[in-house]
C-alpha cells in the first residue's frame, strides 16, 4: 500500500497542476491587440520614441533609437503534464529561431542587457539559446540562482552577471544603477517577490547555491531563486532620466509598491509599468497598490497567455484566471491607461 509520503507527493502534484492552471489565463476582456496604436507620454512636444515588443510570457524587447535591451524571452512551452511530472524539458531551438525571426533582429543583436526576474523554467529555459544565437552582445543579469543554472550553459561566463542582494533597491534604500555602456539606458534591480501558486506554496521554490555542471532536466529543476524587478531608464544627454519603466515578471505584495527613496533628478516617477497577470489575486491588492501609489502613465499587462501550449497555435489565455476581475481593477485605477498585447506586437511610445 502506498505510504503517506507517497500520497503527500501525489496530492502536492495535483495541487501544483491546479495552481499552474490558475497562474495565467482565462477568457477575459483584457483587450488584447496585435497592432496597438502609438501612445504619447510627453508633456510637450514628443521628440523620441521607445518601441516595446511583447515576445510572450514576460519577455520584451525595448528599443529607443539604436539602444536596446531584452527581458527574458520564453517561447518553449512544455505541456502541463510535462511540467508537473518529472519529464525532460529542453529549449525547442527550432521554435525559438522561428519566433525570433519575427522580431527586429538588428535591435536584438544590439541589445546590451538581458534581464531575468527569476529562474523558473518559463523565464530561463530559452535564454541560453537566445543569448548565444541572437542577442550576442547582451550580458545576462539576474539572481545568483540564475547564474548558477547558466553556469552549465554553453555561454562565455563573462556574459552572465549575478546581481547580489546589496545591489538591490527597495522601498527603504537606493540600489545600484547599472549603466549599459555605449547606450542611453540604465537599470536598477529591485527587491521583489513571486506570488504563491496555491495554498501559500510556490512551484519549484528555493535556490541553487552552487554552479551546475548540467542544465536542469525537469521544469522543477529550474528553482525560483531570487525574485527581482527592474527599474529601467532612458537617459537624456544631461544624464537625467527622460523615461522610466518599472518591469515585473511576477506578482508582488503591496509592501513593495514603492520606489526607492530617490532624491534630486533621480526622483522621476514611473512612466510605464509592466505587470503580470499570473497569480495576480494570490497576493493582496495586485496590481492595485502599484497603480495607486506609482500612478504610471501607462500599464502593460504581460504573462497572460497560455504558456502550456505552443505560441504558434491560436492564442488563448490560460484557464482559470479571474481576468474580468483583473480588468476591473485595471480600469478602476488606470482608466484607459492600460493595454494587453498579443505576442510579437510592438507598441510605440513617444516621449
Write a concise keyword list for the protein shown above:
Metallo-beta-lactamase, Chain A, 351 residues, 21% helix, 8-stranded mixed β-sheet, 9 helices
Descriptive overview:
By secondary structure, this protein is α/β, with parallel strands linked by helices. The protein has one domain: Metallo-beta-lactamase, Chain A (4-Layer Sandwich). The strands form 2 sheets. The chain has an 8-stranded mixed beta sheet with strand order 1-15-14-13-12-11-10-9, with no helix packed on it. It has an 8-stranded mixed beta sheet with strand order 2-16-3-4-5-6-7-8. The protein is globular, with a radius of gyration of 19 Å. The N terminus is likely disordered.
| Regions with little confidence, pLDDT below 50 for 5+ residues | 1-28
Strand content: 15-25%
Q: What is the CA-CA span between the terminal residues?
A: 66 Å
Placed side by side, the strands forming the largest sheet appear as 1-15-14-13-12-11-10-9
Say which CATH homologous superfamily is assigned. Ribonuclease Z/Hydroxyacylglutathione hydrolase-like
Mean pLDDT: 92
Query: What Rg is obtained from the alpha carbons, in whole angstroms?
Result: 19 Å
Amino acid at each position: 500500500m502506498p505510504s503517506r509520503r507517497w500520497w503527500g507527493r501525489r496530492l502536492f502534484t495535483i495541487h501544483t497542476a491546479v495552481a499552474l492552471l490558475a497562474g495565467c489565463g482565462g477568457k477575459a476582456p483584457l483587450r488584447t491587440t496585435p497592432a496597438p496604436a502609438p501612445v504619447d507620454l510627453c508633456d510637450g512636444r514628443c521628440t523620441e520614441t521607445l518601441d516595446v515588443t511583447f515576445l510572450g510570457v514576460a519577455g520584451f524587447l525595448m528599443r529607443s533609437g539604436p539602444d536596446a535591451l531584452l527581458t527574458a524571452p520564453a517561447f518553449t512551452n512544455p505541456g502541463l503534464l510535462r511540467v508537473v511530472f518529472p519529464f525532460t524539458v529542453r529549449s525547442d531551438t527550432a521554435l525559438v529561431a522561428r519566433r525570433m525571426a519575427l522580431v527586429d533582429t538588428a535591435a536584438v543583436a544590439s541589445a546590451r542587457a538581458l534581464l531575468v526576474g527569476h529562474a523558473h523554467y518559463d523565464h530561463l529555459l530559452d535564454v541560453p539559446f537566445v543569448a548565444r544565437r541572437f542577442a550576442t552582445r547582451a550580458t545576462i543579469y539576474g539572481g545568483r540562482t540564475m547564474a548558477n543554472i547558466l553556469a552549465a550553459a554553453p555561454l562565455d561566463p563573462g556574459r552572465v552577471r549575478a546581481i547580489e542582494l546589496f545591489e538591490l533597491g527597495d522601498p527603504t534604500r537606493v540600489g545600484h544603477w547599472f549603466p549599459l555602456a555605449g547606450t542611453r539606458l540604465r537599470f536598477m534591480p529591485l527587491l521583489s517577490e513571486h506570488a504563491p501558486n496555491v495554498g501559500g506554496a510556490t512551484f519549484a521554490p528555493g535556490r541553487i547555491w552552487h554552479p551546475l555542471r548540467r542544465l536542469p532536466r525537469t521544469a522543477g529543476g529550474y528553482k525560483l531563486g531570487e525574485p527581482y524587478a527592474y527599474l529601467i531608464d532612458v537617459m537624456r544627454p544631461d544624464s537625467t532620466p527622460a523615461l522610466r519603466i518599472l518591469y515585473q515578471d511576477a506578482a508582488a505584495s503591496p509592501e513593495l509598491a514603492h520606489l526607492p527613496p530617490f532624491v534630486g533628478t533621480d526622483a522621476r516617477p514611473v512612466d510605464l509599468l509592466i505587470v503580470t497577470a499570473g497569480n495576480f489575486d494570490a497576493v493582496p491588492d495586485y496590481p492595485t497598490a502599484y497603480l495607486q501609489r506609482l500612478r504610471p502613465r501607462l500599464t502593460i499587462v504581460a504573462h497572460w497567455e497560455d504558456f502550456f501550449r505552443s505560441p504558434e497555435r491560436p492564442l488563448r489565455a490560460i484557464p482559470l484566471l479571474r481576468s474580468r476581475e483583473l480588468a476591473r481593477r485595471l480600469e478602476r485605477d488606470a482608466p484607459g491607461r492600460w493595454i494587453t498585447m498579443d505576442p510579437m506586437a510592438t507598441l510605440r511610445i513617444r516621449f
